[in-house]
Every structure is written in C-alpha cells, then in structure tokens.
Amino acid sequence: MAKLSVRDLDVKGKRVLVRVDFNVPVKDGKVADDTRIEASLPTIRHLLEKGAKVVLVSHLGRPEGKADPKYSLRPVAARLEELIGRKVAFGEPAGELSLLENVRFDPGEEKNDDALAKKLAGYGDLFVNDAFGTAHRAHASTAGVTKYLKPAAAGFLIEKEIKYLGQVLHAPDKPFVALLGGAKVSDKILVLEQLARKVDAILVGGGMAYTFLKARGRPIGASKLEADRIDTAKKILASSRVVLPVDHVIADKFDAAAKTKVADDVPEDWMGLDIGPKTVELFKSQLKNAKTVLWNGPVGVFEMGPFSRGTRELAEFLAGLKGVTTVVGGGDTAAAVEKFGVAGRMSHVSTGGGASLEFLEGKELPGIAALTDRR
Question: What is the pLDDT at residue 1?
C-alpha cells in the first residue's frame, strides 16, 4: 500500500486521534447493529496495546450541524465499552480511550472548516483514519485534520478495504465475474464502465436488470425501468459479456403480501421483484469457476420474504466456494450477507456503500488521498 499504515507508527506514550465510522443504527437508546464498531476494534486494540492514548471521532446520522440527542454517540460509547472490555470516556478526551460526541453536531464538519480541523488536531499527536465509509467525503475529520496533524496513517480496516477493492480494480485473479444488482443502472454506470474491460462476465440482477432487458426488447411489464438509460444499457450489452435473468419472481404490486408467481417474461401490470430459480442456477454456473467475484447490489427485494430467495441462494453459494476471492460491496449487499449469516465466509465485506462504489469507479477518495505517503 502506498500510504503509511498504523503498523508503521511509534505510538508509545502518544495521543492518537482516530477517525472511525460509528454511524450505526440506534434503537431505544441501544445500538441495533454493531458491525461497524466491531470492524474498528483491531486498530483500537493495536494502538492501546502499543501504549497510545486513543481519542475516537465519528459521526452518526445527519443532525444538520446541530446538537440533537437523537444522534448522540453516547449509546455507541456504551456498546464499545462492552465490546472492548475497558472504560470509554465520552465527550472529552480522558484516560486511555475516549469517544468524542458526534462531530456532525458542528456545522464545520461537512464544510471541511479549518477551525474545526485545528480543534480536532489538538486532541492528538498523530492521526489514523479507519473510517472507510466516509473516506469519499472531504470533511474536517477525514481530510482537513491532516493539514495540522501528521503523520496521518491508514488503520487496519482501510488497509483491508484498499487491498481487496484494489485487487478487484487493478489485478483480479481470472476468471473474474461481477454480480451487480440494486435498483438503478445510473448508480452503477461508472462501475460498469470500469469493469467492462476487466471482467469475464457481468451478471445483472435486481431492479437494474429490467432496463437491460428492455434494451434487449424483452417485455418487463411494470418493473423498474430507467428509460433514459436504455441507450447506455445497449452500449454495455454490446461491449461486455452480460448475463441477464431468464426468469423472475413477479408480483401484482410492491408488497410482501402481493400475489406472486414465477415467469420467464413479465406480463403487463406485473413487476419483477426477484430473479427466478432458472436464473439462480444460470448465475451459479457462471460463478462456480470464478477466481474473483465482486458482488455489489442484491438481486431482488431481499427485505421482503417472497422476494429474498435469489439473493439468499447466491449469498450461500458464494460463501461455499473454495479458492475464490469474494468481495462484497457495502450498503444493501453487506446487509444481505449479514442477514443470511454468511458475511464471515466472504473474503471481504466492505464497510462503505458510497465509498466502495466510488473506489470501484476509479475515483480518488479524499480521506485516503490526505494520508501520509509511505517513503
């Protein structure tokens, strides 16, 4: 990796400001999903074991630059204390480990304000960024702080993200298969263009598949369609090996209680909400010989039971493959593999939805660009 790593730092007796991504769901005053907190623990533990005093900074939600108890990180501090097994001071730096209040309570955070960046820099002697989920944002706590606090190093989580996503982007083992889903072609256009020259096959499911099917002249009924992206879909179909669904789980409305059936084409007034069983087997046949698989976007509305089978079966199939690098994009795809209990059997599950997409689009992420280059 071209950037300085936390493992390169001499931190004994020093204060280390660490940007983490503790933007986790909180319900009834308690953390509902601690996946992102768990992901930060290797970096935090390493620093504490090496004799550092650690000051953590994070955001939670969108408080619009105002203090709001709804978005307080206090419940997160309590959960971190349970997970790490030591006292976590909250609000102000104190002791060996502390967590500051939500940095987005300050309107200067999202403006990358110099005054806030200087204030944050005053809490540390060194800076470590381990918040991949916000690395695509040039905020005071991700980029601005590095002007006043150096060296600035990558934590273990960011290292891992760069390793796996970088491998996919620059040097994937072949055959390389991309499985892309989600609702919109527009969300994935730049990724599709980046991957088109590198992949052996692109398997397309989810809502975005219907724009591709329409571009091929197939009937899609009332399924999700981006009419303004049909020409884009045609270009991608002409330039890449794209595998589209051959059957669908269709419904008469977008509802878990809707009338459903399996069909090869989607008739008028019906909508496709999941890939069908023939498509599941078709996709498995494409994936079974791959050496690298990138999965970004569920292939159906997996949150609703009747439309979850395609995503679940592919998740379980990928988790069972041997000798394959399986990289799962963040956001809904990460949520899906967590829901189906297979996240731990993937090579890497990204913690950043928008950040992983922008990385795969080939964009420079400000939070990583701002880190100190390794000499």
Answer: 58
